[in-house]
């Protein structure tokens, strides 16, 4: 079996798995990283949203063989470290999520938060702030329907990042 090497939450990892195995299964089943959730497996619900090289991606739709040794995968577990948070501290977007009491069941929330952080980073690279149109563009599904609070938390989290 081929060895697949990439960076995960700041650490180099190597797993023996075929190239065509989806990154989500490598994360969850082989590496024990359970923040990215399995929802649909076809890149629709976005419960698994994580980051690769700082940008949102859905590991259910990416083959592990498409990652290289320099690719950095960040999951919700590694998100606080991206802003230098001390061990046990949260990322500002996670804090906003708690303060806005966004989560009900919580299943989709790691993916929602990762999508929100990627959106904030994108609009900042463009030299602007989040608009309603940007928020409308987030396609992560929340079956509990907390979209109003999600939008509020994203705006609040943006102000803290």
TrEMBL record:
Residue intervals of the [2Fe-2S]-binding domain: 75-154
Superkingdom, natural source: Bacteria
Domain 2Fe-2S ferredoxin-type: 7-54
Annotated InterPro entries: 2Fe-2S-bd, 2Fe-2S-bd_dom_sf, 2Fe-2S_ferredoxin-like_sf, 2Fe-2S_ferredoxin-type, Aldehyde_Oxdr_Iron-Sulfur, Beta-grasp_dom_sf
PANTHER family xrefs: OXIDOREDUCTASE WITH IRON-SULFUR SUBUNIT, OXIDOREDUCTASE, IRON-SULPHUR BINDING SUBUNIT-RELATED-RELATED
Name of this protein: 2Fe-2S iron-sulfur cluster-binding protein
Species assigned in the record: Nocardioides imazamoxiresistens
Higher taxonomy: Bacteria, Bacillati, Actinomycetota, Actinomycetes, Propionibacteriales
């Amino acid at each position: 079996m081929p060895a697949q090497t990439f960076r995960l939450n700041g650490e180099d990892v190597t797993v023996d798995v075929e190239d065509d195995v989806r990154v989500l299964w490598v994360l969850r089943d082989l590496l024990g990283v359970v923040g990215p959730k399995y929802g649909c497996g076809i890149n629709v619900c976005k419960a698994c949203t994580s980051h690769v090289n700082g940008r949102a991606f859905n590991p259910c739709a990416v083959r592990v063989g498409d990652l290289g040794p320099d690719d950095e995968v960040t999951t919700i577990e590694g998100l606080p470290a991206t802003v230098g948070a001390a061990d046990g501290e949260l990322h500002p977007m996670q804090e906003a999520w708690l303060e806005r009491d966004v989560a009900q069941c919580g299943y989709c929330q790691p993916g929602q938060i990762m999508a929100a952080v990627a959106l904030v980073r994108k609009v900042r690279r463009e030299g602007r702030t989040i608009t309603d149109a940007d928020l409308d563009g987030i396609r992560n599904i929340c079956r509990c329907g907390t979209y109003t609070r999600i939008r509020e938390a994203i705006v609040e989290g943006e102000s803290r990042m």
